[in-house]
Specification:
The chain is α/β, with parallel strands linked by helices. Helices cover 15% and strands 23% of the residues.
Length: 333
């Protein structure tokens, strides 16, 4: 399945039904008077958040959504039928913008949250509405009003409590595969992960926490370099960042600073987000390398806890997860 996290759609409410001109015609009822009914209201377009969708793929080709028009009024003061509403399901975590003004209209994060994207038009008035002492036989009615039209931009920001970040090939996909049931593509070359991966990690009490594996950032990502710039938005909602660093790289300290600079340049307050650091691949480091000394330097620079782990051998994962559970319990929203 393709991961699509941005889309533009056209939404249009249904046109209101026209009112009609009619007069009462019944035997033994002289001068029956006007009896033209009002038109029905046009249907509206609603966006509804659902847990059953994880991407905006449905809107890649189908981009125009129109509600049903209202029915025309009828004789004998009958009001036309209201048009049916158009209900559009979107993934939880979708932000809805007016594509013309760039105004944020709605942020749908909870299942069942609803936003009226385009109101239906009002029905026109039939001639019975214009009956008065001065005009006993009005011969005019009003047409229905057109429905609201909008060009909307949808942006999906994944709902995850922990975001796993790091340079390409730091082992993020291997880690999420080791601690959850997610099965992302894993290979020994950079940019293996092309889309964010979600994994649910079970806590000891049985509750599930969503982790997001964000594709590798590189220097200049905030300016559009590499893949990470496309997915930085997905860590804006996270409560905690797990920064994974390749312990086998030539300069793990420099790798740490590269990611921090990208978070700072992207802004959105990401550098202020709590972080836990993990030096990964300790099973493959050069025996002459003092990984504990590197961890000590990282802790001093980041003022964040640093763990030594190996996602492949699952070494050190339990203490790391315990720290994450402690933080999330302490920092309840």
């Amino acid at each position: 399945m393709q991961f699509i996290d941005q889309a533009e759609i056209n939404v249009e409410g249904g046109k209101g039904g026209d009112g009609i001109v009619a007069f009462r015609r019944e035997k033994y009822v002289p001068a029956g008077g006007p009896s033209g009914g009002n038109g029905g209201k046009g249907g509206s377009v609603y966006l509804i958040a659902t847990q059953h969708l994880q991407t905006l793929l449905d809107f890649k080709y189908d981009r125009r959504f129109k509600a049903e028009d209202g029915g025309r009024g009828g004789p004998n003061n009958c009001t036309g039928a209201n048009g049916s509403d158009r209900l559009i399901q979107i993934p939880c975590g979708t932000m809805v913008y007016d594509a013309t003004t760039n105004e944020l209209l709605a942020d749908l994060t909870e299942p069942g949250q609803t936003f009226c994207a385009a109101q239906g038009g009002k029905g026109g008035l039939g001639n019975q509405h214009f009956l008065s002492n001065r005009n006993r036989a009005p011969e005019y009615a009003l047409p229905g009003l057109p429905g609201e039209q909008r060009l909307l931009r949808l942006e999906l920001k994944l709902l995850a409590e922990v975001g796993i970040i790091g340079l390409p090939n730091a082992g993020k996909s291997t880690l999420i595969a080791a601690i959850s049931a997610a099965r992302p593509k894993i290979a020994d070359y950079p940019f293996t992960t092309l889309v964010p991966n979600l994994g649910v990690v079970r806590k000891p009490d049985g509750d599930g926490i969503v982790f997001a594996d964000i594709p590798g950032l590189i220097e200049g990502a905030h300016q559009g370099v590499g893949l990470g710039h496309d997915f930085l938005r997905h860590i804006e909602r996270t409560r905690l960042l797990l920064h994974l660093i390749d312990a086998t790289s030539s300069d793990p300290i420099a790798n740490y600073h590269t990611i921090q600079q990208e978070l700072l340049a992207y802004d959105k307050g990401l550098t202020e987000r709590p972080q836990i650091l993990a030096l990964n691949k300790i099973d493959a480091v050069d025996p002459t390398m003092d990984v504990e000394a590197i961890a000590f330097l990282l802790e001093a620079k980041s003022h964040a806890p640093v763990f030594l782990i190996s996602a492949v051998t699952r070494t050190g994962l339990e203490p790391l997860l315990q720290k994450i559970w402690q933080f999330l319990e302490k920092d309840q929203p």
